[in-house]
Amino acid sequence: MTTVIEASGLGKRYGRRWALADCTLAVPAGRVTGLVGPNGAGKTTLLQLAAGLLEPDSGSISVLGERPAGTPEQLGRFGFLAQDAPVYAGLSVAGHLRMGAWLNQGWDTEFAKRRISDLGLNLRQRAGSLSGGQRAQLALTLAVAKRPELLLLDEPVASLDPLARREFLRDLMETVAEQQVSVVLSSHLIADIERVCDYLVVLTASRVRLAGETEELLATHHRLSGPRCDHCTLPVSWDVIEESHAGKQSTLLVRTSGPVLDPAWTVRPVSLEDMVLAYMSQPGDAARADRPGLEIAS
After folding, report:
1. Sheet harboring 17-28: ordered strands across?
2. Residue 297: pLDDT above 50?
3. Geometric angle at alpha carbon 143, from 126 and 119, rounded to 5°
4. Which positions fall inside the ABC transporter domain (predicted)?
5. How far does the chain reach from its first CA to its final CA, in angstroms?
6. For FRET with 107, which of 13, 14, 168, 203 sits at 20 to 30 Å CA-CA?
7. Closest by CA position to 221, among listed 263, 267, 262, 270
8. Domains of the chain, first to last
């Protein structure tokens, strides 16, 4: 499998607190990867490490086979959009495009101008007077017009209204189809992840709890209901992710490598939101039981 990001034992510490620790993952190329997890799981830290904005305190990370932002050439191969869609308030839209052309060797001027025109943005307007959605679209244009192989997007639509969010994601998918770019999209909005992502990474307590193709993950997770049971009576091939018991009945969310054929169980499909929330709701101590004493930033 060709990867765009590889991390092994990756960690970042702020003082005595670890924002990310013992993170190991491989993000495949050619996919739109959704990165989800609760607040404090380390999503932003992971993306900033991948963008070369931070240096790791432990472990290693490579982006497109190289050290993040190790050379100007490598820096030009990926684009990064932070969650606040940073633009310069006093600089015009045209000024941002000129800046992008000056900073990026592979800058596509015609694409940038065409996209700004399609968005209906006034080239003379200062970025500070744009709406939140317009600023996000301008920032996306700057990230994409450099013609990157990889886009790193950190909560790019978190502050947008539903219409602006839909337009942003639509434009993102058009860009992916046109430029064949790999994307890592961090979001807490499961509906957006489901709409655009075909690969999923769930990060909790700085550890990758789940990773794989979205359709395959959904096919191997099941919601079961049946007679009350305990773990010792369940097949060893069932990985119980979530469970609840009421009276004589048990309800489980399990991951299996094959179909559930036991007639004692009623089997229902699992939505992406249910699956993600089940992993996110697992106790933090259990998620990092192999790292005793580790303190995770909230």
Report:
1. 17-28, 3-14, 58-63
2. no
3. 50
4. 5-230
5. 34
6. 168
7. 270
8. 3-213 (3.40.50.300), 215-287 (no CATH)
